[in-house]
Write a structure and sequence with these properties.
The chain is an alpha/beta fold and about 280 residues long. It has nine helices and nine strands. The chain has two domains: about 240 residues, 3-Layer(aba) Sandwich (Rossmann fold); about 35 residues.
Length: about 280
């Protein structure tokens, strides 16, 4: 049976490849973007199988109206892909309040509005699969990516919580964590290399130079291959809660988690002191 998709950020990058892969195998897609002009080629190729919808995910009312329109148009929603997002680049000291708020509006609140809008339809169906795009940067922290990583770490927690809340309704959740993908021709595939850049301070120029020297060492992932991998994920009867797309960051993530466990173990005595002997066994 073909599936009906709702995909945000469909005009380019991974989102565009996801839409093309779904349409290419005979599925139908409600493809959203800030401007539907970038979706004209899809409509020309796939006709009524694609419903182009203009959407800014930071507009809560528009999200709910767009989801409703898509569900009514196709009669159901099977796969919801929260893909829209961007990276704000800058040292913590360089970030402005406006930049951080804008980052969270798009990367955290946008996906939240989509989830809240689609859940009534998925619950009524007793089925559906929510795909939340995160990043390898949602699992580890790198310099100059604090705002972006904060948004991705938050969406990781939101997605894991959501999975536990909706499993009883037959709704599945998978958090996809891509590494570096060549989503913009001629540009560095590093997940923190192509975002919005804060006004720089010379204090961090040395750090920027060192990171620039390291950039590009990871092999760029193929967005088309990622799209085919996503098709396999949505067809699984028991999909994973989390899946890395690309292998380049796996050793770094593994080491980061091993280091965290070792640190907590090393400081167990201090942890016990912080609890206080009189409170042992009294956690509520």
């Amino acid at each position: 049976m073909s599936k009906v998709w709702f995909v945000t950020g469909s005009s380019r990058g991974l989102g565009r490849r996801f839409v093309e892969a779904a349409l290419g195998r005979g599925d139908r897609v409600a493809a959203t973007a800030r401007s539907t002009a970038g979706l004209d080629a899809l409509v020309a190729t796939y006709g009524d199988a694609v419903l182009p919808l203009e959407l800014d995910v930071t507009d809560k009312a528009a999200v709910f109206e767009t989801v409703k329109r898509a569900a009514e148009h196709f009669g159901r929603l099977d796969v919801v892909v929260n893909n829209a997002g961007y990276a704000q680049i800058g040292a913590i000291e360089e970030l402005t309040e406006a930049e951080l708020r804008a980052q969270l509006e798009t990367n955290l609140f946008g996906p939240l509005w989509v989830v809240q809008a689609v859940l009534p339809f998925l619950r009524d169906q007793r089925s559906g699969h929510i795909i939340q795009l995160s990043s390898a940067a949602g699992l580890i922290a790198m310099p100059l990516g604090g705002a972006y990583q904060a948004s991705r770490w938050a969406i990781e927690a939101l997605g894991e919580t959501l999975a536990k809340e909706v499993a009883g309704f037959g709704v599945k959740v998978t958090i996809v964590e891509p590494g570096g993908f060549a989503t913009r021709e001629g540009k560095d595939p590093d997940p923190l290399a192509n975002g919005h850049v804060s006004e720089t301070s010379p204090v961090y120029d040395g750090l920027r130079r060192r990171l620039a020297e390291m950039a590009g060492r990871q092999p760029a992932g193929d967005p088309a291959a990622a799209a085919q991998a996503l098709l396999k994920v949505v067809d699984l009867p028991n999909p994973p809660l989390r899946v890395l797309f690309g292998q380049g960051f796996h050793p770094m993530i593994k080491q980061a988690y091993e280091d965290r466990l070792a640190t907590w173990e090393q400081w167990q005595d201090l942890s016990a002191e912080a609890q206080g002997a009189e409170n042992v066994g009294a956690v509520r």
